Amino acid sequence: MFRDDRDPTKSAGLLPAPARRRWLIAAGAAGLGALGGCATLSPSSPPTPVVTTPDPELPTPVTPKPVPKPPRLGLALGGGAARGFAHIGVIQVLEENGVKVDLVCGTSAGSLVGALYAAGRGGKELQTVAESMDEGAITDWTFPMRGLIRGEALARYVRQMTGNRGLEQLPLPLGIVATDLGDGSPILFRQGDVGTAVRASSAVPAVFQPVKIGNREYVDGGLVAPVPVRFARQMGAELVIAVDIGEPPDPKIPGDAMRMLLQTFSIMGKSINQYELQGADVVLRPKLDGFSGSDFSTRRRAIALGREVATAMLPEIRRKIAAKTR
Questions:
Q1: DSSP per-residue string spanning 99-150
Q2: One of 108, 201, 202, 266 is an active-site residue; which one?
Q3: Which intervals carry biased composition (Pro residues) (predicted)?
């Protein structure tokens, strides 16, 4: 009887028990690693989405709204001699109600008030100046050849009240309208001596002597623009408030030469204004019936009437400004 002395594990092709245990442990670890890898790469396992919760303490971004831009407002002040005190009342009401004027353009009496206003004198100060004004101090009579009044006293007064600054140096842009005596064309003064410009704009023919500037002579701007609306536009105004203080023609036919001359200006001014004032956004007409352009004693009443019409038209002024605000 034969006995098989070979190791049964060897005959069966098996490893010894300790080695087999080590092999099984290693194989198990490798299998787990493979399973883990399969789980990581398996397409059947979708990625977990990451949800970001906003920080409640951070403010929500807001797009700033554009700041409303009002239209560039121009004030067109007309001529009318002593009736021009009404311009002061209009300026007072605009200031008191926060209506900002960006530029001013004046003719004759309007050029005088406009110059003082553009130089930085507010409505209250303008009234003080008006009430203390001595018309004798701005009237220099001369031999009546080309005019009764020379006009240099007026120019000196304006220079003094505006600090001897040029038109282009004033805090508020100012335009002054006069008429070229040679060809009848209008001129808008924007630079140079303020006093000379006001003197030229106020030089009523036969009353004031013409003003020579360079090689040209100039007279009252009311001959071409009694209320200088189009020139305020030319200066860049997007909205124009026009103040018409012109004296209407007297139904009674005047008997003397001077009144006849003033009547002629009134008729002419009325005709021109029918065209000129069409370009204004708002027209203010103070109720100056019975007020003479040569009567300086009515200055306080004229200022009050300027205030009255400006106050009455204030809602219309605000409406027009709102309509053109971008």
A1: ----EEEEETHHHHHHHHHHTT--HHHHHHHHHH--GGGG--B--SSSEEE-
A2: 108
A3: 56-69
Can you say how many angstroms the Cα of residue 238 is from the centroid of all Cα atoms in its chain? 8
pLDDT in tens, 210-253: 999 999 999 999 999 999 999 999 999 999 999 999 888 878 87
Per-residue CA distances from 184 to 189, 197, 265 (Å): 15, 17, 15
Other C-beta atoms lying within 10 Å of the C-beta of residue 2: 4
Condensed to tens digits (0 to 9), the pLDDT of residues 177-201 reads 999 999 999 999 999 999 999 999 9
What CA–CA distance (Å, rounded) separates 196 from 165? 12
Which contacts of 51-57 are long-range, i.e. CB under 8 A and separated by 24 or more positions? none
Q: CATH 3.40.1090.10: does it fit domain 74-320?
A: yes
220 catalytic per annotation: yes
Give the list of residues 6+ apart from residue 3 with CB closer than 8 angstroms, or none: none
Tokens representing 243 are 């103040």
The owner of tokens 């300027």 is 306
DSSP 149-210: E--HHHHHHHHHHTTT-BGGGSSS-EEEEEEETTT--EEEE-SSBHHHHHHHHT--BEEE--
Q: Which long-range contacts (CB under 8 A, 24 or more apart) does 252-261 make?
A: 258/206, 258/207, 261/205, 261/206, 261/207
Write the DSSP symbol of residue 258: H
- Report the candidate in 129, 45, 137 with the shortest Cα–Cα distance to residue 85: 129
Q: Please state the pTM of the whole predicted model.
A: 0.78
CA quadruple 71, 79, 212, 193: dihedral, nearest 10? -40
